[in-house]
Amino acid sequence: MKREKSKIEWDKNNSKRLAYLKNRSEAFSFVSPKTKAKQERFNSQDDYVADLKKLKAAIDEKLSTKNKPTRN
């Protein structure tokens, strides 16, 4: 009971972090599905590979803009 209350309190106080962790988990699940059913479903779809390529391009773009030096 105390653990549940603590978790609820942490979730309430860290809503932005919780949302980030959820989104990160979903992204990793999309890229590397753990269950056999998901693996089979994704691997049999041509658009899955296309989406992975688009995702990679978006990540590469984001990383390139984050690594550029800023001018002050």
Description:
The protein has 4 helices and no strands. The chain is an all-alpha fold. It is flat, with a radius of gyration of 18 Å.
Counting helices, strands and paired strands, the structural category is mainly alpha
Averaged pLDDT, please?
87
How many runs of DSSP E, i.e. beta strands? 0
Low-pLDDT runs? none
Count the helices. How many? 4
Question: Can you summarize the main beta sheet?
Answer: none
If you compute it from the alpha carbons, what radius of gyration comes out, rounded to the nearest whole angstrom?
Answer: 18 Å
Portion of residues in beta strands equals under 5%
Oligomeric form: single chain
- Distance between the first and last residues' Cα: 52 Å
Order of helices and strands: HHHH
Any idea what the shape is? flat
